From TrEMBL, chain A:
Domain 4Fe-4S ferredoxin-type: 1-29
Coiled-coil regions, chain positions: none
InterPro entries, alphabetized: 3Fe4S_ferredoxin, 4Fe4S_Fe-S-bd, Fe-S_cluster_ET
Function text: Ferredoxins are iron-sulfur proteins that transfer electrons in a wide variety of metabolic reactions.
Name used for this protein in its record: Ferredoxin
From TrEMBL, chain B:
Species in which this protein is naturally found: Pseudonocardia thermophila
Protein name: Cytochrome P450
PANTHER family per the UniProt record, alphabetical: CYTOCHROME P450 YJIB-RELATED (PTHR46696:SF1), P450, PUTATIVE (EUROFUNG)-RELATED (PTHR46696)
Gene3D superfamilies: Cytochrome P450
Domain of life: Bacteria
Keywords assigned by UniProt, alphabetized: Heme, Iron, Metal-binding, Monooxygenase, Oxidoreductase
Entry-linked CDD domains: CYP199A2-like
InterPro entries in the cross-refs: Cyt_P450, Cyt_P450_B, Cyt_P450_CS, Cyt_P450_sf
Signal peptide span: none
Pfam families hit by this protein: p450
Molecular function terms from GO: heme binding; iron ion binding; monooxygenase activity; oxidoreductase activity, acting on paired donors, with incorporation or reduction of molecular oxygen
Protein family membership: Belongs to the cytochrome P450 family.
Length: 65, 393
């Protein structure tokens, strides 16, 4: 699985990065960066939590490939 | 999914003084009855009581429309036509982009130092006094100062703004005495805002930027004034009550205050918990655009649903032991800012203000001893009128 960011929706709250600091972070400009391309099953679970807490529902999980 | 033969319903008036004074036992009963409970006191209105269903409704604007539907009376809904709160995409997205250019976390973080310093100065002056009223002397001061500065508004409206913002929120309720009184007050605010031209707003301010982009966005003066009103009123009662509620809660739970003082890293979690425990906005409505089945109950298309954020935040199905105030809980997914396309546009600013105040207080004050709080009743906002405090440093 991969984390997909809807850039039109993302407003840069960074709540996802608080929940999944190993998978996502805000860069110096406050833009969201996805740090892990292909998620392990364990990471997928964390990523799902991160997607769930996004205030603007900008994150989703997509099948890799 | 089976359809229940008789949908759950209740004759409770969620906007009566009795319920507003202590809504949580009533919310708990409604949550027990069902995720969607029809309210007999209103015409074709349902309460959404549980966390999952409120969040799902907030996340589905196509089914749960805001278009002239966020309030529970026709006066407010007519007024909200075309506003950011009372519209759906694509018009909504255009207005939101204008606000977010100024209010997004990326844009707003540059003012963090300014807010931190303002919080330090304010708390220093209160510590010197030793006793004060946490509502007018503390909670009201920071948001009012910050919002007027950021929007670049002239000082002439400052003395009335709290009363105007309170009226702007209360009129989202059904047409009761509070709403009728609020409706009388609102024109005063628009009269004042309506006199403002671009040059009355400080250059480089958020307010001025609305007028700056008006040409390219095709906004007329009236639309600029409406956006100004959104900016200024949304940032008042909400943050003010969050701060008052925080002081009341930490006075009541000294062990939780000790925990924050011992570990300032808990401040963001503690602020989330304050917002979960006492949602400043208790409820907004939506209108279902088609027949929907909610937890086995059919809600007919065209009916309104009231999203009871204050109930969802206390839903035992989502938060274990929900009536316990716990600064370590970090409920990042609380409903107090809403969710989805209408999620609070000012939440990054609210967090900066809330964190700054909690930090400034926790660095200086060991204990709050509070006198009898006086609740301020508003149809949709939960807050205090007065909270006498004596502090130990």
């Amino acid at each position: 699985m991969k984390i997909s960011v809807d850039r039109d929706r993302c407003e840069g709250y960074g709540v996802c990065a608080e929940v999944a600091p190993d998978l996502l972070h805000l860069d110096d400009d406050g833009e969201l960066v996805v740090d892990v391309e292909d998620l392990t099953p364990e990471q997928t679970e964390t990523a799902a939590s991160a997607a769930r807490v996004c205030p603007v529902a900008a994150l989703s999980l997509r099948d890799a490939g | 999914m089976t359809i229940a033969s008789a949908p759950p319903h209740s004759d409770v008036d969620l906007f009566s003084d009795e319920v507003l004074l202590d809504p949580y036992p009533v919310y708990a009963r409604l949550r027990e009855m069902g995720a969607a409970v029809r309210l007999d006191a209103l015409d074709r209105v349902w309460a959404l009581t549980r966390y999952d269903h409120i969040r799902a409704a907030d996340g589905d604007w196509q089914t749960f429309s805001s278009d002239a539907s966020v309030g529970l009376n026709e006066v407010i809904n007519a007024r909200l036509v075309g506003s950011i709160l009372g519209s759906d995409p694509p018009w909504h997205d255009k207005l939101r982009a204008v606000l977010m250019a100024q209010l997004s976390p990326r844009s707003i973080r540059r003012i963090t130092d300014y807010v931190e310093e303002a919080a330090d100065r304010l708390v220093d002056s209160l510590v010197e006094r030793g006793r004060f009223d946490a509502v007018p002397d503390l909670a009201t001061v920071l948001p009012l100062t910050v919002v007027f500065d950021l929007i670049g508004l002239p000082e002439s409206g400052r003395g009335n703004m709290i009363r105007w913002a309170d009226a702007m929120f209360t009129i989202f309720g059904p047409l009761n005495d509070r709403t009728r009184a609020g409706v009388q007050i609102i024109p005063e605010m628009y009269e004042w805002l309506g006199t403002l031209q671009a040059e009355d707003l400080r250059p480089g301010s958020m307010g001025r930027s609305i007028f700056d982009v008006a040409g390219e966005q095709g906004f007329d003066h009236h639309q600029c004034v409406k956006l100004l009103a959104t900016y200024v009123t949304a940032g008042m009662d909400t943050t003010i009550n969050a701060i008052s509620n925080a002081v009341a809660l930490f006075a009541e739970h000294p062990d939780q205050w000790d925990a924050v003082r011992a570990d300032p890293g808990l401040i963001p979690s503690a602020f989330n918990e304050v917002l979960r425990y006492e949602s400043p906005v208790l409820a907004f409505a939506r209108r279902v655009t088609r027949d929907v089945v909610i937890d086995g109950v059919e809600v007919p298309g065209g009916d309104q649903v009231v999203l009871l954020f204050g109930s969802g935040n206390r839903d035992e199905r989502h938060y274990p032991d929900p009536d316990r105030f716990d600064v370590r809980r970090n409920p990042v997914d609380h409903l107090s800012f809403g969710y989805g396309i209408h999620t609070c546009a000012g939440q990054a600013l609210a967090r900066i203000e809330g964190h700054a105040i909690l930090r400034a207080l926790s660095e200086r004050i060991r204990r709050f001893h509070t006198g009898e709080p006086k609740r301020h009743l508003n149809n949709v906002v939960r807050g205090l009128e007065s909270l006498p405090v004596e502090i130990e440093t």
